[in-house]
Amino acid sequence: MEAFALIKRNEADIIKVEEPKLSGIYNAILTPVAISVCTSDVNTVYGSGSKKPDNLILGHEAVARVLEVGEKVKDFKSGDIVVVPSMTPDFHDKDIQDGNFLHAGANFSANTLGRSTPGVFAREFEVANVDLNLAILPEGVSLGNGLMCTDMVTTGFTGAERVNFGDTVVVLGIGAVGLMAICGASLRGAGRIIAVGSREVSIPLAYEYGASEVISYKECDITEYVLKTTGGKGADIVIIAGGNDRTFSDAIDMVRYGVGKVVNLKLFTGDGSMEIPKFSSGRGMSGKSVYMELGKGGRVRMERLLSMVKHKRFAPEKMITHIFEGFENVVPALELMKDKGNTVIKTMILTGW
């Protein structure tokens, strides 16, 4: 069958591989209907992260059709159209009882599709524990809206879950995750939402999803701006959804003493350190909290997000700037996300399968 795979570092292409065999009684084999390339796919191919297996099938964002289910699967059947979350926790591991959904049994155990196990960019792929991981695409919810919920929405909303009514929130980065962090913060009742970014195509959506203002890091010192316009106090919440290695320390600089929270959603590639500045961290005694998060997964999570979309609380498909027909277009979609010009936020490839 066809699959889009990492041949070796810096090289990915469509190759022929064997079809997957159902490996567990709680699992299912699916075929993708719509897929999207993520920045983390770009990082897997071109980044400097951990070594990945050669010929690893990429991809973790898909709406798919169920082909075959294991004998213990109760709630899904062949023909169902489902949303496949990018995070698929191992719900049979005892660490789940500690609420450790993303790292149960092993570090990043929920974060395997297209990273350490075959991903969704193939004519057929397998998902484990499907009764607890997949969600039916509801009637009236478009493929695009369902596809954006798999990763971008759930990740951005994870950053917003620590927002309280009336909070001043700064979102660093206005790519898809940042836009959904803005949207989530607005839905959580944030007062003022300062979005930081310069990508032209994202600015109107940042306002539509709830930003009070959008400032460019190219035009001002963002830390000085936040501190000055908050009377020196800083923001209640800073959500990191983009930037560079300095961004982490900037977030510490601009968040409030005592109750301020920094929530990181960004992958910092490479080795080295993420700096915490001594002065703005109160030399270790500022009371500022730091959270390092992955987007949440699981069936209930997806069903809740899809319900919000169905009942028109927000429309994440507006982030899709490029639609392709045919699986072969996963190749140019990856390059488009790699170059990421001012006209690109997210892609959607309709596979035709």
Structural descriptors:
353 residues, globular, 25% helix, 16 strands, alpha/beta, 9 helices, seven-stranded mixed β-sheet
Give helix % range.
10-25%
**Oligomer status:** single chain
**Helix-strand sequence:** EEEHEEEEHEHEHEHEHEHEEHEHE
Uncertain spans: none
Number of helices: 9
Quantity of strands, as a count: 16
**Largest sheet features:** 7 strands, mixed
Summing up helix and strand content along with how strands pair, one would put the structural category as alpha/beta
Task: Please tell me what the overall shape is.
Answer: globular
What is the residue-mean pLDDT, rounded to a whole number? 96
If you compute it from the alpha carbons, what radius of gyration comes out, rounded to the nearest whole angstrom? 20 Å
Distance between the termini: 12 Å
Strand content: 15-25%
Structural commentary:
The structure is a single chain. The protein has 353 residues and is of the alpha/beta class. It contains 9 helices and 16 strands. It has helices at residues 39-46, 130-133, 143-160, 176-187, 203-209, 222-229, 247-254, 299-310, 330-339, and strands spanning 2-8, 11-16, 28-35, 56-57, 62-69, 81-84, 125-127, 135-136, 168-172, 192-196, 213-215, 237-240, 261-264, 289-292, 320-325, 346-350. Strands 3, 5, 6, 7, 8, 15 and 16 form a 7-stranded mixed beta sheet that branches. Strands 11-10-9-12-13-14 form a 6-stranded parallel beta sheet, sandwiched between helices. α3 packs across α4 (176-187), α3 packs across α8 (299-310) and α6 packs parallel to α7.
